[in-house]
């Protein structure tokens, strides 16, 4: 009887076949459907990650399964339903488009690579997409995050999952990670182009709020650089937009539980701005590269209600980078730099150029 192996079977290989390079774009994740059952599956995976919740497992997991999931699943499903599109989850739709356009941009730049996208929680999973890249002959894989600012709760969790996949593989590809790009000139320029373009069309606000996803305050004191990187992004973006210190505020959203999180919190900040008599406030979320529940529901809906009920007159949410050409170019440049030294260069691909043009045309038709 043959011995069972702890490692998964390797894909078929033909001697002499060319080695390929893969790029995996990783985002946080989304439920498959805006239903309580699908949201419960998603939240179970998300909130079971020790990178996300550092409470001891023996305490947290019983609480998660008996209290948190039964209470949150239906409420969260209703929120997802309010932002769901005919194509599906906005986060998944935008991430898929970014991967497709990134493939085209890299092809135009002469890089022969295979680009896929994956979700840390939900589908398509990181493991399934790494398996697919390996089956397509990838012996080198660059993992790039949808998170510009590094956090142990997001970036490190993706790295954990990639390494867990590698632990079950006999022939492990060469792996690289793009840890973050919070102060990359191209990223800052893309944000400034998005926001500045909005103001050129709609006029400037009385005040500008930059809302980043929150994390527990204790992580800052334990050495996580997330807070500092968010602040640096905001400072660079404000400088690029020509804003004075009193023209903008930085806040943090999505607080969960009773622990103290990074402050100031976004919703109380919006109420305070309205209380000061500011009539128009514009809000952008620089830490999210794709619109999602946290931007479209928490900010564009709940944030709007908080500001208007507190006396504000005009609330504007400025969408994320999504598939803006300036962002795809910046993302491509960041990716290409991290591919340096790997044999990906080839003559510019006419087919890739045509795919990029078709994808851009299709995107314009859906806007």
TrEMBL record:
Protein name: Ferrochelatase
Matches recorded under Pfam families: Ferrochelatase
A Gene Ontology biological process term: heme biosynthetic process
Chain positions recorded as Fe(2+) binding sites: 213, 294
EC number of this enzyme: 4.98.1.1
Family: Belongs to the ferrochelatase family.
Location (main, coarse): cytoplasm
Keywords: Cytoplasm, Heme biosynthesis, Iron, Lyase, Metal-binding, Porphyrin biosynthesis
Catalytic EC class: lyase
Localization per record: Cytoplasm
Pathway(s) the chain acts in: Porphyrin-containing compound metabolism; protoheme biosynthesis; protoheme from protoporphyrin-IX: step 1/1
Cited HAMAP family: Ferrochelatase
SUPFAM superfamilies in the record: Chelatase
Transcription regulation as UniProt keyword: no
């Amino acid at each position: 009887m043959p011995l069972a192996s702890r490692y998964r079977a390797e894909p078929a290989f033909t001697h002499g076949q060319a080695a390929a390079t893969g790029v995996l774009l990783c985002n946080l994740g989304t439920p498959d459907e805006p239903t309580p059952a699908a949201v419960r599956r998603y939240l179970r995976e998300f909130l079971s990650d020790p990178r996300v919740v550092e409470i001891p497992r023996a305490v947290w997991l019983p609480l998660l399964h008996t209290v948190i999931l039964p209470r949150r699943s239906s409420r969260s499903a209703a929120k997802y339903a309010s932002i769901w599109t005919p194509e599906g989850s906005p986060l998944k739709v935008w991430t898929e488009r970014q991967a497709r356009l990134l493939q085209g941009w890299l092809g135009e730049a002469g890089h022969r690579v295979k680009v896929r996208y994956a979700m840390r929680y939900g589908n398509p999973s990181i493991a399934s997409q790494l398996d697919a890249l390996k089956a397509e002959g990838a012996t080198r894989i660059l993992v790039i995050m949808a998170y510009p600012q590094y956090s142990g709760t997001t970036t490190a969790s993706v790295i954990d999952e990639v390494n867990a996949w590698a632990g079950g593989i006999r022939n492990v590809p060469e792996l690289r990670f793009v840890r973050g790009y919070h102060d990359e000139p191209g990223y800052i320029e893309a944000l400034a182009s998005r926001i500045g373009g909005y103001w050129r069309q709609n006029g400037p606000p009385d005040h500008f709020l930059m809302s980043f996803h929150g994390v527990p305050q204790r992580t800052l004191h334990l050495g996580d650089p997330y807070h500092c990187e968010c602040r640096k992004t905001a400072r660079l973006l404000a400088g690029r937009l020509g804003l004075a210190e009193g023209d903008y505020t930085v806040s943090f959203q999505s607080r969960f539980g009773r622990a103290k999180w990074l402050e100031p919190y976004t919703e109380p900040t919006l109420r305070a701005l309205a209380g000061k008599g500011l009539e128009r406030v514009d809000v952008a979320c620089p830490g999210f590269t794709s619109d999602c529940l946290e931007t479209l529901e928490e900010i564009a809906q709940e944030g709007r209600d908080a500001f208007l009920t507190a006396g504000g007159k005009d609330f504007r949410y400025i969408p994320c980078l999504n598939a803006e050409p300036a962002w795809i170019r910046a993302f491509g440049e960041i990716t290409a730099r991290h591919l340096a030294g790997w044999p990906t260069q080839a003559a510019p691909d006419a087919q890739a150029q045509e795919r990029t043009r078709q994808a851009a045309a299709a995107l314009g038709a859906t806007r």
